[in-house]
Amino acid sequence: MAAEKHTDDYTGIETTGHEWDGIRELNNPLPRWWLWTFYASIVWSIGYWIVMPAWPLVSSYTTGMIDYSSRALVAERIEEARSAQDVYAAKIEGAALSEIQSDPELLEFAMAGGRSAFAVNCSQCHGRGAAGAPGYPNLNDDAWLWGGTLDDIAQTIAYGVRTEHDETRVGNMPAFVSDETLTRDQANDVAEYVLSLGGREHEAAAAGRGSEVFAEHCAACHRAGGVGNTEVGAPNIADGIWLYGDDKETILETVTYGRAGVMPIWADRLSPATIKQLAVYVHALGGGQ
Question: How far is it, in rounded angstroms, from Cα 289 to Cα 284?
Fold first, then answer.
């Protein structure tokens, strides 16, 4: 049955013929400004399809009359930025680290570049703020396994730790109990002595025996009093800063099985200028020597 149209008594406008529970719908025409806007949008869309890239094809797309490409524009701007950076990068590559640090303009550029390179390459292990995690050093403090000077940091970044490069940092913590150098009782005594060096609660008698074992087997790397040795990457175990943890169980695990953390070589992935920028940035985090 066809919809029955009526003329509304109050407005004098014809209805659409639709009715719901006695309520009829007025057939009000759309405002002219709305109609003209709609028509203009149609004309605009046709023009856009012609002028701009718009239609996908099987293996490409229509490039439009002006052959515009946002990807090409981004690539062009990136290249412009790189060209502008190349001037500073060349200066940094040719300058000593101390010269970069003393030149305000180069230092500002190095800090910005180092911050970016750290976020991309280093934060996954050392953390976004370089605060580290168990097994990954905190770069904000003043405790350095291999030294915290600009040159020390640059070498560690470039050649890594325990890698195959000739200039890598090398120094392994032996597995004293697994290798049967120490008994478990001796390892327990050493752990108590290490706790005492770090100002932790410990058993005095065991720590006294452990000091003798430490002097014989550990002091060659960690030195007397456990103050550490950056030449072999032996940490200071008397400063209260712990790489793997400060509880007795963790210390016993270290003495029993040893430690051999690894840091990648970055010299084959990053440019010399980027490595210098990273060294300057890390040095400036607060713990550089």
Answer: 9
CB 235 within 8 A of CB 173: no
Model confidence pLDDT, tens digit, residues 199-249: 889 999 999 999 999 999 999 999 999 999 999 999 999 998 999 999 999
The separation between the first and the last C-alpha atoms of the chain, rounded to the nearest angstrom, is 92
* Domains of the chain by start residue, with CATH: 81-162+264-284 (1.10.760.10), 184-257 (1.10.760.10)
Number of Cβ within a 10 Å radius of residue 263: 21
How far is it, in rounded angstroms, from Cα 182 to Cα 190? 10
Report CA-CA distances (Å) from 276 to 88, 145, 248.
12, 19, 39
Judge if pTM exceeds 0.90: no
Distances in Å between the Cα of 62 and the Cα atoms of 54, 75, 183 are 6, 20, 76
With contact defined as beta carbons under 8 Å apart, do 288 and 150 qualify?
A: yes
